[in-house]
């Protein structure tokens, strides 16, 4: 498994539109890309102090992929490419390319509690236990 932290920039005045579009992207990835076990998108929380103070245009992805090939498939595949073509006016581009600062990560420790599992809209999913008939 490989994980990635990626930072994009939302264009000024486009935050609300970007959130709607990003929620749709997350839904598409969840439904159409089973090789993506985790795909989360965050905006800065200005109700608490962060150092350095992030920009109001910052957007952070924290995602996991089965392997590097799965990450490449996501980037080059129709779900992401079609979505990006639908929303070029929402995000910062440089020389015709989406401007992204990213870091690929290798997980060496830690955990994710089942209570953190959500659907693409961020709604907590009901944990399913092996003995649960539902």
UniProtKB/TrEMBL annotation:
InterPro entries the UniProt entry points to: ABM_dom, Dimeric_a/b-barrel
Residue runs in coiled coils: none
Domain annotation ABM: ranges: 1-85
Pfam families: ABM (PF03992)
Protein's name according to its UniProt entry: ABM domain-containing protein
